[in-house]
Amino acid sequence: MYRNGVVTTVTLNAALDKVYTVPQYALDRVHRIGSAVTVPGGKGINAARVLRALSVPVRVAAFVAGHTGRQLLDLLQAEGIAADPVAAAAGETRLAITVLDPVASTQTELIEAGPCIAGDELAAMRRKVETLARESAWVVFSGSLPEGCPAGTYAELIQLAKAQGARTALDASGAALAAGLAGRPDLVKPNADEAAQFAGMPITSPDTAIFAASMLVQAGAGLAVVSLGAEGALAATREAVYRITIPHVRIVSPLGSGDAMVAGLVAASLQHEGDLPAILKHGAACGTAAALHKMAGVVTPADVDALERQIKVQLISH
Predict the structure, then answer these.
(1) Which pLDDT band holds residue 3 (cuts at 50, 70, 90)?
(2) CB burial class (10 A; 0-12, 13-18, 19+) of residue 184?
């Protein structure tokens, strides 16, 4: 394992994902599940799955708790993803249930709360991040904060990782995103709703997305990428703004597409240092490729390559 190619993903609120496919799903009815998938989940774990598919050495740091946490670790091992967990003494790792209706093209999510993290457990995670960052090119911080972790947790962990020489990415929302920007992450990647919440205004046009991305940069991000679903994405640095246009695809599930985009951006930065258009194109290709699968964090290199050839990155302002 060599530092320049190792990525650590940090998932403070990991989950065990269960994805049910239920044609003609309806309330107040009994449904017998014909197709079910159970996988380790949480945004950072989804990103790790994509990085492994891209042949990038990756490891997962996460809080785990109870029987569900042990099952999550067993499933990570079965996938060949290295895990370096911190055990929470109380509660259970949460379940995240997604019901996909392929007839109505709907996606319903039922997400439990995670365990409450004690002070000594958070301190153990600080030490772990500091240690792993010494051997990592990137540390990716993703997802919601569990109870017991204050809003500034990401900022503190980002600063610890940066002090060890790693670059950092933050994929969060709400107070966790706003407070996390104080750590000055190298990359943030909110979706349109998350960017709108941060900016305090709806994302109704490319101009408003540019404004939100620029606000994220002013608040501390080195690169802000705002994903816009089928409309592609916008990216901003202090020097330039880019528009990313993606091809039309038949979406199976958008679940985890944002996580895949983060993974693609980080992976491309290891190969295309300084070539931001190439990095953005690869990130968008991974995010789009993930929408072709019902399980979060699944991409194939063939899909990524094919989509990447169809994605356009346009410099729209300096």
Answers:
(1) very low
(2) middle
> 233-287 pLDDT, tens per residue?
999 999 999 999 999 988 887 878 999 999 999 999 999 988 999 999 999 999 9
3-state secondary structure of 262: helix
Distances 160 to 146, 164, 240 between C-alpha atoms, Å: 19, 7, 28
DSSP state of 253: -
Q: Are strands 15-21 and 35-41 parallel, antiparallel or unpaired?
A: antiparallel
Residues 65-77 have pLDDT tens digits of 999 999 999 999 9
Q: Which residue has the higher pLDDT, 293 or 177?
A: 177
- Please measure the distance between the N-terminal and C-terminal CA atoms of the chain and give it in whole angstroms: 38
Is the pLDDT at 2 greater than 60? The verdict is: no
Q: Chain-centre distance of CA 164, in angstroms?
A: 22
Per the CB < 8 A criterion, the answer to whether 48 and 72 are in contact is: no
Instruction: Tell me what the pLDDT averaged over the chain comes to.
Output: 93
Q: Which residues contact 57 (CB under 8 A, 6 or more apart)?
A: 1, 5, 6, 7
- Known catalytic residue at 259: yes
- The C-alpha atoms of residue 81 and residue 93 are separated, in whole angstroms, by 18
Instruction: Give yes or no for a contact between 223 and 214, defined as CB atoms under 8 angstroms apart.
Output: no
0.90 exceeded by the pTM?
yes
Query: Which listed residue (259, 275, 303, 305) is catalytic?
Result: 259
Question: Distance (Å, rounded) from C-alpha 62 to C-alpha 250?
Answer: 33
Alpha carbon distance 196, 278 (integer Å): 26
